[in-house]
Amino acid sequence: MNRAVSSVRTRHLGSFCTSSSSPASEAWDGRFRLHKPRGQHLLTNPRVLDAIVRHAALRPGDAVLEVGPGTGNLTARLLASPVESVAAVEIDPRMVEAVTARAAALDLAQKLTVIHGDAVETDFPEFNVCVANIPYGISSPLIAKLLFGTYQFRTATLLLQKEFAQRLVAVPGDSEYNRLAANVRMVADVKLLMDVSKRDFVPMPRVDSSLVEIRPRAVMPDVDLTEWLAFTRECFGQKNKTLGAIFKQKRKILDLCKRSQRTERCTGGATGRGIILGVLDDGNDEACGDDDSSDRAAVLSEEEVGAFKEKIAGAFESTELAAKRPSKMSNDELLRLLRLFNEQGIRFQ
Ligand code: SAH
Asked: Rounded to two decimals, what is the model's pTM?
């Protein structure tokens, strides 16, 4: 059905300048209410939409994944590019209908698969490139899913909230440097491509945006990623404290001791989907020592705790790392400490 694209009412949309009656129009006709809590801010500036596709450097044969196509402003351009196919995951049935109609009106429906579902929960079809103006509320779990799930792709070109993008590209020593940046940097190179004004969206959001390229590393680091993610959670919970101080806290010692004992008992550790999706929450999570561990209530003897403290001291003894602060450390340094901990039998997952 073409209602979605044929009944476009003209509206003044800032720098928007193509004919609003064209089937490829970016204009928003107000045919239904846009929900801000769902991140429904449509990108309507054709120059920015073109630039996103240009930056994505799509190739013939690419299978593109788009998250949150909305009414299809970006989708239309992806479909018109030389790619093989586009799969778009959209949570709102009204948008599913709109983007489907948009592709039909452009006579490009054969290249498009629309998946109605929550992009955080739904399994993605095979893709080798991701291009999307995503709902900003799912930035962390989505990036975690892309990078720490089972997907293999060349690049993800994502429009993100500007502050989030800045945290993502931060380097050790920057005030924004955090767990998100450290974890993402471990498996990918991240590049800021361009800033996008909030005036380029309808309805206008409160925040500006930035386009970012995430390129997974060709060679992945030789580390158990679940262990790494659990380790950085501990370190970046209090990223400006010294590591020595962080790992001296009684609550943390008890928690880690129980975790290490549990990991010793169970082979494989906990590598559930929930862990992966939660690992990139990038706040300064002061309460992270309060992780729910199933055997939290287990009582440890004084000897056990004493022996465990010695293991921690043993890990630090051989290096100068105790005086360092996570917010200023490279991943190589953090990885070195994780290895020293692991050698002592201290486990984080
Ligand atoms: N990409 C479009 C629309 C961006 S608005 C454009 O640039 O114009 C964000 C879109 O993501 C909306 O269509 C919204 O319904 C959808 N969305 C929100 N949460 C989602 C989720 N969890 N999974 C998939 N889509 C989601």
From this structure: 0.85
Which architecture, in CATH terms, is 3-216?
3-Layer(aba) Sandwich (3.40)
Residues with CB under 6 A from ligand 1: 38-43, 67-70, 73-74, 89-92, 95, 118-120, 133, 135, 138
For 78-127, the pLDDT digits (tens) are 999 999 999 999 999 999 999 999 999 999 999 999 999 999 999 999 99
Name the residue of 42, 197, 202 to mutate for ligand 1: max ligand atoms within 8 A of Cβ: 42
Instruction: Confirm if 297 and 332 have CB atoms less than 8 A apart.
Output: no
Q: What pLDDT, in 10s, does the model give residues 278-296? A: 656 554 433 333 344 444 4
User: Measured between alpha carbons, how far is 36 from 348 in angstroms, rounded to an integer?
Assistant: 38
Topology of the domain comprising 225-343 = Helicase, Ruva Protein; domain 3 (1.10.8)
- Judge if 3-216 and 225-343 fold alike in CATH terms: no
| CA 201 – CA 133 distance, rounded (Å) | 11
C-alpha 77 – ligand 1 centre gap (Å): 16
